[in-house]
Amino acid sequence: MTRRTLVGLAAAAFTGRAQSFLPGLPNVGVKADTGPTRSECGVGALLPWADVLWAVTYNSHKAPTGSGLGLHVIDDRLNIRLVHRSDGTHANRYVHTQSQQAIIGPYAVDLRGNFRVIESLLDHRLTATMTHLSDPANRVYTLTMEGLLFEMDVGTLKTTLLFDLNKEFGIKRPHFKGGCTAQGRVVAANNGFYEFGDEQAGLFEFDGKQWRALSRKPHMECAARRNMGEVMFATGWDEASVLLWALIKGRWRRYRLPKASHSFDHAWQTEWTRIREVETERFLMDIHGMFYELQPIAFEDAIWGVSPICRHLRIIPDFCSFRGLFVMAGNQNTPNADNNPLGGQPQSGIWFGKTDDLWSFGKPQGWGGPWRRTEVRAGEPSDPFLFTGFDNKVLHLKTDRPAEVRVEIDFLGNGSWETYETLRVAGYKHHVFPEGFAAHWARLVSQESCTATAEFLFS
Prior knowledge:
Structural class: mainly beta
CATH superfamily of the largest domain: YVTN repeat-like/Quinoprotein amine dehydrogenase
Number of domains: 2
CATH class of the largest domain: Mainly Beta
Shape: globular
CATH topology of the largest domain: Methylamine Dehydrogenase, Chain H
Strand order of the largest sheet: 1-10-9-8-7
Number of helices: 1
C-alpha cells in the first residue's frame, strides 16, 4: 500500500481551475489524455469527505485503454485537482464508520484528507464496497466488475479473494455494478445484458453460507439505510420494463416502472444508475432515463413513495450533496477507442445545482408493462406497475387467444387491490384511461392462460 498526504485542503492550496458557477450547466470538468489511446473519462463516484468532494474517473476497460484518470478533489470554491493517477475503472464509494475512513475507488481516505492507495486492487475494476457480514468493524467487501468479491482489512488494506461469482452462477460475460449489505445478506447486481432474451446477468444474494440467484435479468444498483427498517432496494430492467426490488423484513417484493428511454437497455449503455440520499432521509433514484423520489421506509410492508420527477438523457454515474448543492457526475464525451470517431478528447462535466432543479428537466414520460410475450397463467396477477405521476395513460394488450384481462389498481399503495375494469381481448385491444386518473400501482390478471403482451404508454 502507498500513503499519500494532501497538505492544506483550503481553497488557496488548489491550482486547478473551474468555470464560474452557472446554474444548470456543468461548471467543473474532468478530462483524460488525448492519446495515444482514447477511451472514457466518466466520473464513477462522488463522496464528500474531509472538507472536500472526492471524485474518481474511469475508462472503458482495464488499462491501457485510457490514461490521465484517477482521484480528484473539489473544494468549496469548485476548484478541482487530480491528486493521484489510477488509470482503471472504479466507481465504488463507502464510509467505514468504525475506522472513520472513506473508501472511494482504490483509495482509503482518513478524516484529515490523507489517503492510502489500495495497491492490490489497482488492476481490478471496482464497482461496490459493502459492509462485512461477520466482522464489520475490521473488514469490508469489495466487488469487481469481473464478478470477484474480495474482503479487505481496513487497517492494513490487505485483500483476500472470497468468491468468483462467474463460477458460482455460470456467467460468461460479467459486468457487475452495484452491491449492498442489509438485513444479514450481501446483494450483488450484474447488468451484463447484450441481446434481448439474454440470461447472463442477474441479482444475487449471499446469507453468509451460500449464494442464490434472485433474477437472471440485468440489475444495476443496490442501496439501503442502516436504520428505518433497513429496507434494501435494487434496480434493473428486462425486455418489458424497469425492475424495482425491495427487501422488506427479509422478504423480496418486485415492482415495475416505465422506461423513459430504450437507449439504456444494453449493458454498456447503463452506467451505474444510482439510489442515493441527497436530502436528509430522502432518496432519489435514477434508472433508465428517469429520476424518482423514493421513500426509504416501507409502510404496511409495502412501497408507497415512488414518484417520477423528470425524464433525461444524461449519463449520471453518481450524484450526491455537497455544500448544500446537488451534484451530478457525468460521462459526456467518450471516443472509446475511436468507435465514436468524432469524440475527440475524453472528458465529462460535474453538474452543480439544487435538488429542485430536477423538476425543470424533461416532463416524466415512459412506457413498459408487466408482460412482453409472456406465458401468463390464468388467475395469476402480474407484478405491480407504477401508475402515478403521468398525465395521460394508455394500455395496449395483445394475446394469442381470446382472454378476459382484469385491470386492478392499488390507490393506497399497500396492496389493497380494486377492480378497475375487465377488458375482453381477442388479438389486440387498447384502453385509454381518463385524463388525470391515477393510483400508486396497477396490475393485470388474465382469466385465461395465454401468451400476452401488455404495455402502458405514459405521456
